[in-house]
């Protein structure tokens, strides 16, 4: 019976084409506005590494000055100092640990026809690649020995490798970066998780992929300063070593735990570490030490702001307005079919059957609105993506949102059709037959 009602619904789309087109368009515009906004919110609030996001942990230790501080205030920065980073790396807590600093400088290509150009990336420790499941196209991450020695080795992104060497494996070759020769040990496949939870501070949650990676020990051995956000809490002395020994915060740190159950033990260790540092005259604020997993970290950094949530609510408000208009149009469409309903009722059709028929027809309208709404949503997302590079990363539709578009359109149409369908079922056969 459903197939019969579905065919009737398709046939009735052509009965009053102007009214049908207006209903489909009204529904499609509301769905497109909602879906395009919801899609951006969905991408922005997504989990970039869902299979282990609850086991990747950011520690926060407040090493700020006492001046101007009141208990309960947020830390002045969400990164840690070099001293704390080195101590946490040596702690053996968790199954992996990584410290990350930003780096940037000039690439001097081997090719004489290519001028030098700027490139940015990260200077992490070796565990970074395994911790965040970074995929390799060629080669691999540098070794632990390279990490300890601060060797001049480098991992390139696929985009940078192809720019320098074309579509060949460059592992083993040398590239000059920031005035030093680095040996290429790996090339990663295209990798740019959204949001960029691994290093939000200094670059943002939505930005281009990192172009290169060098060991942090190599960066500090060459006395490179951080390329990114830096906050200093004291007047450090002259020289690079004074910078490393200072309370300046410029390093992002991550632990990877074996299981979520290990988190309380990590918190206990971090509290004990902070207590030891206070005995040495540091961490004078005596602020609570915090741990954040990936999704907690994204929430703490307010990756999805109140403006984004408000936009989504406004879009759904617009969809509700479109539904009200659709209800009015369906009432007009079904009211002129009262004689048809009267004849069917006189021939033995029950109210339930009439209800099923008309509700199926509204579902057909919803399906048509979903197809058009999907096209409009794609167009809206394409226009949004043109506004900035950051928006181009989040204005993209996946299979989840594709399915959501059709479900939302059909559900919205059926919801809007409940009142008109119920009104159609109340037709009295005798009155309609008498009036013919």
Outline the secondary-structure elements:
Blueprint: H1 2-12, H2 17-44, E1 56-60, E2 80-81, H3 82-89, E3 96-108, E4 117-124, H4 127-131, E5 136-139, H5 144-149, E6 153-157, H6 158-165, E7 174-177, E8 180-188, E9 212-213, H7 216-221, H8 240-245, E10 249-256, H9 263-279, E11 290-293, H10 294-300, H11 306-335, H12 338-346, H13 351-385, H14 389-394, H15 399-425, H16 429-435
Parallel strand pairs: 4-9, 6-8
Antiparallel strand pairs: 1-10, 1-11, 2-10, 3-4, 3-7, 3-10, 5-8, 6-9, 7-8
Helix pairs in contact: 1-13, 2-11, 2-13, 2-15, 11-15, 12-16, 13-15
Overall spatial form: elongated
Strand content: 5-15%
Number of domains: 2
State the end-to-end CA separation.
Answer: 28 Å
**Which spans of ≥5 residues are poorly predicted at pLDDT below 50?**
430-435
Structural class, from helix and strand content? Answer: alpha+beta
Q: What count of helical segments does DSSP give?
A: 16
Q: Give the helices and strands as they follow along the chain.
A: HHEEHEEHEHEHEEEHHEHEHHHHHHH
Rg (CA only): 30 Å
Percent in helix: 40-55%
Domain MacB-like periplasmic core: 20-267
Keywords: Cell membrane, Membrane, Transmembrane, Transmembrane helix
Subcellular location: Cell membrane
Membrane topology: Multi-pass membrane protein
What this model shows, in words?
Helix content is 50%, strand content 15%. It contains 16 helices and eleven strands. Strands 3-4-9-6-8-7 form a six-stranded mixed beta barrel. The longest helix has 35 residues, at 351-385. 37% of the residues are buried. The model is unreliable at 430-435 (pLDDT under 50).
